[in-house]
Design a protein that fits this description.
By secondary structure, this protein is of the alpha+beta class. The protein starts with a helix and ends in a 7-residue tail after the last helix. Helices cover 52% and strands 17% of the residues. The chain is elongated. Strands 1-4-5-6-7-2-3 form a seven-stranded mixed beta sheet. Helix 7 packs across helix 8 and helix 10 (192-198) crosses helix 11 (220-229).
Length: 288
Amino acid sequence: MQDENFWAAQFERHRGRLRAVAYRMLGSFTEADDAVQEAWLRVSRASGEDVRDAGSWLTTVVSRQCLNMLRARSTRREDPLDTRVPDPVVASGDGADPAEQEVLADSVGLALLVVLDALAPAERLTFVLHDMFAVPFDEIAPIVDRTPAGARQLASRARRRVQGLPLTGSPDRRQQRRMVEAWLAAARGGDFAALVELLHPDAVLRVDTGGAGSKLVRGPAEIAGQAVLFRAGGRLARLALVNGGPGIVAVRDGRALSVLAFTLRDGLIVEIDILADATRLSTLELTL
């Protein structure tokens, strides 16, 4: 018999992985923590059950809770998906802390999380569990009420949507840093031409203010124009690692005003995701 003490120990042992699973499924640390907490309540009520693989079983419990939350979210969501930016993982950009680098090495880029937000709940769960955490389709199928073959099809559909986006941050941080430094210098100087040269022809800018100021901007000239328009904010900016990739944080009096995440393709900036929602930023743990 596996008692409550056993499950408490197992839950703590796997808590980091469970939170990572929930974050990648939900794109929100607050919701991820809620999912993990609810999973613990369910586990504590079922602590008398005998389970062969505690880690797999706990992952299943958390995954079911995330699926319920995703389905509930899809029925009540009012904010447009094309401007929503998931919660970022932010750390200093100097690379001095080995422990910090280890955590960020397995981060998922914000651009990928944005795409995951647009997937159907079952597609997102299947993709995250199989492609990011190597959970077999045989174990995923009962969670999404599909056969293993059906679960495989869900993952395949999701994979087509995220094609071309890396599952983890690129390790070439030197090139990334040079690009962001060049962007920041050009933005501060109001150098429109230099900004355009740094942008991919298919570049997208996504700004999430949590309100009416949210916007989606496409095209190098339009994005460069936005950067020049708001260049005064560049004086508050500092380099950072955002979800393991290149980024910028604008800080005033120790408080984050915005977080920018850059996605590079073919040596150019193809996506910039900005979170400028003061309420959400105030809840994040930023290591700066």
